[in-house]
Specification:
The protein is α/β, with parallel strands linked by helices. It has five helices and ten strands; from the N terminus they run H-H-H-H-H-E-E-E-E-E-E-E-E-E-E. The strands form two sheets. A five-stranded parallel β-sheet has the order 1-3-5-9-7. A five-stranded parallel β-sheet has the order 2-4-6-10-8, with no helix packed on it. It is globular. About 5% of the residues have low confidence.
Length: about 230
């Protein structure tokens, strides 16, 4: 997930730098900062999120809102109408999502508190406008709390020792969390996401695995990547 985002943002930044160079040497005259340019920071991540395995529903809502804001900046729609539509739409989406999880959704959220009770609390890691890198080589892992706010947390569990099922609580707000897990454990995810999500597609759960990592995640304009 984050690799795809990095590639796309890298290409965009290189393109912007080339345009600035062309303008600086008067080879071309290209205006970058048009009305509504800032909405691209909403539209592009949400568009990418539709294809990289994150919460597609949230990203679709974000994409629609970004496009409406862009049209508002271009005086195609009135901002008053946009706010009257967008705010109820977000609330309705969150309501339907919670209703689905409470009736037809997965039951991981019910399992997580059961496993969390009575277990030793793991380490808490907080990254704000910074990065944190953790490694649990040959160390017993009892679970952890990871929080990334405009930052990044990287945790390598590939050589960790799992004596029992564990819980990892994550919170990413305009940030990212990368977790490397061993092949001999299963991963189950319960996520509440708005314009973000958890990507665990690269990890394959196996029937013979005897240990499970439960990921309890909250994402807002951020994501968690299980590798």
């Amino acid at each position: 997930m984050r690799r795809t985002n990095n590639i796309i943002w890298g290409i965009l930044l290189i393109a912007v730098s080339m345009v600035l160079l062309l303008n600086a040497f008067e080879i071309a005259s290209i205006h970058l900062f048009f009305n509504g340019w800032w909405t691209l920071f909403i539209i592009i991540p949400c568009f990418v999120g539709l294809f990289n395995g994150t919460d597609r529903g949230s990203n679709l809502i974000g994409l629609v809102i970004g496009i409406l804001l862009f049209l508002g900046c271009r005086d195609i729609f009135s901002f008053d109408i946009i706010w009257k539509i967008a705010f109820p739409a977000i609330i309705a989406f969150m309501g339907f999502k919670m209703l689905y999880k409470g009736t037809l959704g997965r039951r991981n959220g019910e399992l997580i508190p059961v496993y969390a009770n009575g277990k030793a609390h793991g380490k808490s890691t907080f990254a704000a406008f910074s990065g944190q890198t953790l490694s649990y080589d040959e160390e017993v892992f009892h679970g952890a709390d990871f929080t990334a706010i405009f930052g990044e947390v990287k945790c390598d569990l590939r050589n960790a020792i799992f004596e029992d099922d564990v819980v990892i609580n994550t919170c990413s707000l305009f940030g990212g969390i990368d977790i490397w897990v061993p092949d001999d454990v299963n991963v189950k995810v319960d996520s509440n996401s708005i314009f973000g999500g958890v990507d665990a597609k690269r990890h394959e759960n196996r029937y013979e695995n005897t240990r499970t990592i439960y990921i309890n995640s909250t994402c807002m304009f951020g994501g968690v990547d299980i590798k």
